[in-house]
Amino acid sequence: MAQDTPDTPNSGPSGLDYKQSGVDIAAGNALVDDIKPLAKATSRPGVMSGLGGFGALFDLKAAGFKDPVLVAGTDGVGTKLLIANQTNNHHSVGIDLVAMCVNDLIVQGAIPLFFLDYFATSKLDNDQARDVISGIANGCEQSGCALIGGETAEMPGLYRPGDYDLAGFCVGAAERERIIQGTSVKAGDKILGLGSSGVHSNGFSLVRKVVDLSGVDYFDPAPFDGDKTLGDALLEPTRIYVKSCIKALETGAVHGLAHITGGGLLENIPRILANDLAVELKSDSWPLLPVFKWLAETGGIAPDDMALTFNCGIGMVVIVDDQDEQRIKSIFDDHGEQVYSIGTVTERKHGQSQVLIDGFQAKWA
Known about the structure:
By secondary structure, the protein is α+β, with helices and mostly antiparallel strands.
């Protein structure tokens, strides 16, 4: 029997390269070149390297710290990405990604310093990726944080065509004596609430269920905001509270901060309370945003579930001494926040929940 030659039909596959398997290295390199100016625009004191190296360098001394403690956080955007994909609107989810990380750092008194992103997809669409990463750069600029690196991964077979996922990693620092851990929170302290921009980036599995029940298309006018489509209204990015909170923290009068994310008001505020303390919130002291009214009514969501799932209009909680309430409130006012006096810290009674929201059962029904 004669041996097969290279051009014989049954010679088997030959000459494969990475691109034929679904991974385009050239497209990835082109994306890196496209986003370098975006990253450069976020630079801040302390950044020692640009994109493209094996690792990113940051000099804490050059950033002005004397006795720093590093604080790190990571997060994602969750199933809000599915709405971005369905509407082909990818401009704001990068802001969400940054917001979820930097807001978690500032509550501990840490100034966000640098950010890295992870973008994973089936096949790289440079226009889509550029939109996402431009949003990340926007979020970094809003928070004074440098975008100093990241990873873009093509994984055909793991993701469906067109789908992608995002993760973010942020490192911040606080001078040792300025770390906020809630240890100074005491009965009698006052609670300020900073208004949210909407649903932010939590609870979207429930949001999408409500949309399915409603019969409203993402391209239809939003039932709660006739000036926007439903998709655009739900994609309103998470508010970034970093710069206003930094100004409040500089006074030394802030006893505690809580970023209201997954778990809502009921689970996030206790994270900065001692076991013998509770908070009493007044539900009529801030507006329940129209999007939350629509979700509750359309989905028949009980008030308890609303408070456990969503921010319900308050994206950040700030706890201060009663004598400092008006001073800190003025600082947030001056920095563009919608700020409300929403309650008081109390001594916790035996068996009592740590978060009591007066009147919400009737108001949010």
